[in-house]
């Protein structure tokens, strides 16, 4: 029903072929984008992109009005489709009370779009960027749910800095609301690619999310330099859906040295875990932060930009298992003099909480992009984007050690886009991605993954 | 099968090189129209800085001194619009349009009222307290309030 209402209102705007629709002293705007994905060899974003998929669309409608000379109130309803995820479920995208006091100090509260990097707050708005698909190195579609917005408040403004330009800032604090069912893009991706089989996520608990975006409008006309930092405290709760062996054996190696005795102690613990349906899995992100660094230069019709994204996370994973958790610990003591001794202890746990893994991971991505507008109706654009899910394994050595292909360690994307703007309401894009690597591809919708592949994207957008 | 890695790499680099070249040789024809800034008689100033014009038309300044709402008005297109947007916001008209789309669809602002003719814009500015807009100097009648702009050659 909600989807029907949303589509009806957008259709009215389409029929009117107009700009904003004025309503009750405010403005109504909307958009609808329909895309097409066609990939060679590997499915990406959609489970059937190799056959060609139209399950790639977004639509939204918003209303915004002045309540007082300084205060606006507005909201946007939004729905999208991406392969088997989202399925056009209508959601509250943003709802904001925005108080503008002075250009250098303003405040807003509600569900806010997060201004991190150049494009995070507009990642669903196709017509405000040159390409259809944002560089996946910095704006991975699968992580959209976690990055897009927060429920809370923010202060923002623009500080004049004289001859050295202006400094814009935005500081925000709040929490997040992420869809835990399999319609959620991120939930589906995590469940399909988790270390543990049959994991069913049932809760994301954000203790807090805070961050800062700084943007320097330099004295060089058209040149901006910016940085964003976001810190998240997150706990994820899941249950195992079936009786199963919970993933591969986990190996922990610790080494200690006692300078007083000159003794070295090496402890190797191998943990295997059997779980039953309903057993719990809790992941506490003790560290979860991400940064964007970006630069953009606009001169006339030329736009050059580059961004770097870095994410660091440390996960502390515990489980409540009614099956057996078997921890076999081998301890080797190497004294200063004399032969080493080795002892083995086996610890079997059941019906108990157990810490099963502490995992640290740093992801890195960056891109450089260029766009040139030849006329009001035609723009040519392209970018080169590189993503490394593990920044310490750029060459894929660790992937090979784990029995995978080295090219699972990266995703390199050469993209070229033709953009056509027809009138003031329509945008069409034709785009090709020449891909090298398969990092971040969903294993659940792919068989054998090919290193070199191709993705064609077409997208049409109407907005009013 | 139709992926050719080297072709893709060279294609991207060729496009990049062409763009850099085109920046130098294909500068767009910018109309050299003259622009006059007009305001409703209720607006409590007779002179405005180019910095404030930029803040007003990019939604960063929303009230006049004294607390009255600023009601900016723009033209949809034409040489006067191009000249104003270029001179006072530092953007092309396409960039200006994109800027406001970003603001609208992320809930950061309500765009200025836009008009397809100078006559409609003048009528709006004349009748709306706090309104400010721009037209060609030749369109200004004696009873319109014109603001002097400082800080921009």
Structure characterization notes:
The complex is a heterodimer of chains A (464) and B (153). Chain A is mainly beta and 464 residues long. Chain A has helices at residues 2-16, 144-147, 185-193, 397-401, and strands spanning 21-23, 26-39, 56-66, 71-82, 91-102, 105-113, 149-160, 166-175, 199-217, 223-240, 244-245, 250-258, 263-275, 280-299, 302-321, 325-334, 341-349, 352-375, 378-388, 411-422, 426-436, 452-463. Chain A has a 16-stranded antiparallel barrel with strand order 2-3-4-5-6-7-8-9-10-14-15-18-19-20-21-22. In chain A, strands 11, 12, 13, 16 and 17 form a five-stranded antiparallel beta sheet that branches. In chain A, a hairpin with a 5-residue loop joins strand 7 and strand 8 (166-175). The two termini of chain A are 22 Å apart. Chain B is an alpha/beta fold and 153 residues long. Chain B is built from five helices and six strands, in the order H-E-E-H-E-H-H-E-H-E-E. Chain B has helices spanning 5-25, 50-57, 79-89, 93-105, 118-127, and strands at 36-39, 47-49, 71-75, 113-115, 131-135, 145-150. Chain B has a six-stranded mixed beta sheet with strand order 2-6-1-5-3-4, with helices on both faces. The relative contact order of chain B is 0.22. Mean pLDDT of chain B is 84; it is low at 24-31. The interface between A and B is large, with 62 and 48 residues.
Summarize the structure.
The complex is a heterodimer of chains A (about 475) and B (about 150). Chain A is mainly beta. Helices cover about 5% and strands about 60% of the residues of chain A.
Please supply descriptive tags for the structure shown above:
heterodimer; A: 464 residues; mainly beta; five-stranded antiparallel sheet; 22 strands; globular; B: alpha/beta; six-stranded mixed sheet; 5 helices; 6 strands
The structural class of chain B is alpha/beta
| Helix/strand order of chain A, N-terminal first | HEEEEEEHEEHEEEEEEEEEEEHEEE
Output the helix-strand order of chain B: HEEHEHHEHEE
Tally of extended strands of chain B? Answer: 6
Q: Bin the strand percentage of chain B.
A: 15-25%
Largest pleated sheet of chain B: 6 strands, mixed
In spatial order, strands of the major sheet of chain B run 2-6-1-5-3-4
Mean of residue pLDDT of chain B?
Answer: 84
Total helix count of chain B? 5
Q: How confident overall, as mean pLDDT of chain A?
A: 88
**What is the terminal separation of chain B in angstroms?**
58 Å
Largest sheet of chain A: 16 strands, antiparallel, barrel
Strand content of the residues of chain A, in percent? over 45%
